[in-house]
Specification:
It contains 15 helices and ten strands. With 458 residues, the chain is an alpha/beta fold. The chain has a domain of 320 residues: Glycosidases (TIM Barrel), CATH 3.20.20. Zinc ion (ZN) binds next to loops.
């Protein structure tokens, strides 16, 4: 063997280098969004932090460590809708202790904890009521051009960093933006980028080493004119999320997508939510829906990764629901190891959760889950964003709007037919699957969805 062929053989024997995992693998939600128990009569968003929820978090942390899902982004650690004028009154000493304990538990599992942070928008209602001069045409956002607004924003940042967090996930557009004459000089993307840059510069200077993410609601990722503003923002933060993945929808027909060009120009990691997100219904029993999103999410994340995307803020899912549970297993594992491919992660997750040793049975079970997904997502192709099962803002169980608002009558009829076939697949497999409780839960959830579909029809 000559030297060249020896080197070639040695190189061929080495395993292919694993693809770089996603750098920011976030799990994000309102603090009660992963609760095993619903809260049928609490106003949204509930921030109740009791022993049951702490237990749910503890279980989730153990899974996150296993999945290598490392960035926990929590909304509602301190407040639900509004900061008090005296920020130090935001939480009782008891809640402060519970929050500290929750964060310590996350840290003991090797996780990082980011706090959700409304930037000029979300959380400022009380402050605006007491300082009406900062309210210039939008009742829920502070004017971005007033120095006094900035003083308030800084106080909020300093308060949030009193807790032992590792960073923030910022949002500047939840309640829209200030429309006043001074602020209107800036287009949507530029306006939001400027506010986020101001806060990020402050955090970098005052709290070095903290992670800063931006959830880019309000920014126009699909507009090439946004590129300079997004690039400027990217110099100040660690990752940027195009929530609805709008940049991938442009230019697909001709050359590289806008998303690819955008990512190449950014100085920070870029990402999305990871495809369709089944929004946790705060008020519903956990067996009222069955909507896995495995293939959609797996394909979405792999395409994002191959475009250079390295961040994801996967929303909290209800792990007590087997459809949501399996989607999250596959999403989390794909984020940590995109090269293996989502189908392998699905097979592994089924082996773990359903304890099925036989490969053909696992494959049949995978097909049943994928059929349940296809029955719904075929009617919302390429969707990235949240699927609200019930109306989000409410204080009681709401109607199934994912059936009535997203699907028309013909699509509902098709969904009902398809789910009947899916139920037969699960029923046939049930005797061969050792994990009986999950199979029974899935069958019950499928029956409940069909009952909702019948009720809507009648
Ligand atoms: Zn303004």
């Amino acid at each position: 063997m000559n030297r060249r062929s020896f080197i070639a053989t040695a190189a061929a024997a080495l395993p292919a280098p694993a693809a770089e995992p996603f750098r920011y693998r976030g799990y994000l939600g309102w603090i009660t969004d992963l609760a095993t128990e619903p809260e049928p009569h609490a106003a949204w968003p509930s921030i109740r932090l009791d022993t049951g929820l702490a237990r749910d978090y503890h279980r989730t942390f153990t899974l996150m460590r296993e999945w290598k899902l490392q960035d926990l982004c929590i909304w509602g650690l301190q407040i639900s809708r509004s900061w008090p004028l005296r920020l130090e009154d935001a939480v009782t000493p008891d809640r402060a202790r519970r929050v500290d304990k929750l964060i310590a538990d996350a840290h003991s599992h090797g996780l990082r904890v980011l706090s959700g942070l409304g930037i000029y928008s979300w959380g400022f209602d009380e402050i605006l009521k007491a300082n009406p001069r900062l309210m210039k045409g939008n009742r829920s956002t502070m004017c971005g051009s007033e120095d006094e607004s900035w003083q308030w924003m800084r106080k909020v940042i300093d308060y949030v960093f009193r807790f032992p967090i590792d960073g923030v996930s910022m949002q500047s557009a939840d309640q829209g933006r200030c429309p006043c004459e001074k602020c209107a000089r800036y287009g949507e993307t530029e306006y939001h980028a400027r506010l986020n840059i101001r806060c990020a510069e402050y955090i970098r200077a005052r709290y070095p080493g903290k992670t800063i993410g931006v959830s880019g609601w309000g920014m126009r990722f699909a507009d090439p004119a946004s590129l300079p503003h997004l690039t400027a923002l990217s110099r100040h933060i660690d990752y940027l999320i195009d929530v609805r993945d709008t940049s991938s929808q442009s230019g697909r027909q001709s050359g590289p997508t806008l998303r690819r060009r955008l990512i190449a120009g950014l100085k920070c990691a870029f990402g999305t939510l990871g495809g369709p997100q089944v929004e946790p219904p705060q008020h519903w029993p956990r067996d009222r829906w069955f909507l896995p999103t495995i293939r959609s999410v797996g394909e979405h994340l792999q395409a994002l990764h191959s475009d250079g995307g390295r961040a994801c803020e996967w929303f909290y899912h209800i792990l007590a629901n087997p459809g949501d549970e399996l989607s999250t297993w596959v999403a989390a594992r794909t984020l940590a190891d995109p090269a293996a491919g989502w189908r392998r992660h699905l097979d592994y997750s089924l082996a773990r959760l359903y304890k099925v040793k036989s490969k053909p049975v696992r494959e049949a079970l995978a097909e049943a889950f994928l059929a349940a997904e296809q029955a719904y997502v075929q009617h919302i192709p390429g969707f990235c964003g949240t699927i609200s099962l019930e109306p989000l803002v409410s204080s009681e169980p709401g109607p199934p709007v994912y059936l009535t608002k997203r699907l028309n009558a013909a699509q509902r009829a098709s969904y009902e037919r398809d789910l009947t076939a899916v139920r037969a697949q699960f029923e046939k497999l049930a005797p061969e699957v050792p994990e009986r409780p999950r199979m029974q839960f899935a069958l019950r959830a499928l029956d409940n969805v069909r009952a909702d579909l019948r009720a809507v029809r009648e």
